[in-house]
């Protein structure tokens, strides 16, 4: 992110999110250069799982350079920027944030992040250290955000970034869930839109996926921490709106699914198979390049060339 765009981001998104919290509905309009209205090139990268081992900081530098070489209008982040924040102490993951923020700061276009389950820090620590009062605090501070969910407009598109993680404890520790407060905010946000405005949603945990149908069979029920459990209620909010694209992470597979006028893309992973050698269901380390032209979605999964070295 350039100095100018970072300053702009912090001032506009930070201020807009802060003002939305206190009830103001104004949203920033970003002065993105390069593409005509209703035509935009996006890079979407997800599931980085930054750490220091296995030369992975080198991979992150390669991924950032590859994204920059595409000259996207904006860049969207799908979450899980670091490894295992959720069950670790703040001190344990500090160096992983350092590794990730190098990549983050190297991205030249304005970057809009969504939170992943690994980005909560000390939600349920397993080493006996106390749980964080707000496990999202470090993420918010690193990203320069006042809130994990927000919306913005650019080039004729409305972007909605969701927080899809709810800490539950118990067997699964968390679940994919859009909170009641977020649902209320979403209703208000959509009410201010024209019904034909094209909308893009970014969420870490998938709203819709065929991954389990294909890999486990159609009768398999995914665990509640694999998908958003209230996905139907969320999608119903969009029934009178023009939701053209949902960008998702979490599963590390590349997948495109069309339901009605909505395209769902699960965006693979920068870390591929959690930095292990080989592919994860035919998906190599990569990110997504997406061109939107009015309501039309073009998608390419770009492998940036990293050969994993995890033993
Ligand atoms: Fe995840």
Automatic annotation (TrEMBL):
Domain of life: Bacteria
Domain Calcineurin-like phosphoesterase: 40-253
GO molecular function: 3',5'-cyclic-nucleotide phosphodiesterase activity; metal ion binding
Pfam families (alphabetical): Metallophos (PF00149)
EC annotation from Swiss-Prot or TrEMBL: 3.1.4.17
Main enzyme class: hydrolase
Keywords: Hydrolase, Iron, Metal-binding
Family per record: Belongs to the cyclic nucleotide phosphodiesterase class-III family.
Protein's recorded name: 3',5'-cyclic adenosine monophosphate phosphodiesterase CpdA
Organism of derivation: Candidatus Venteria ishoeyi
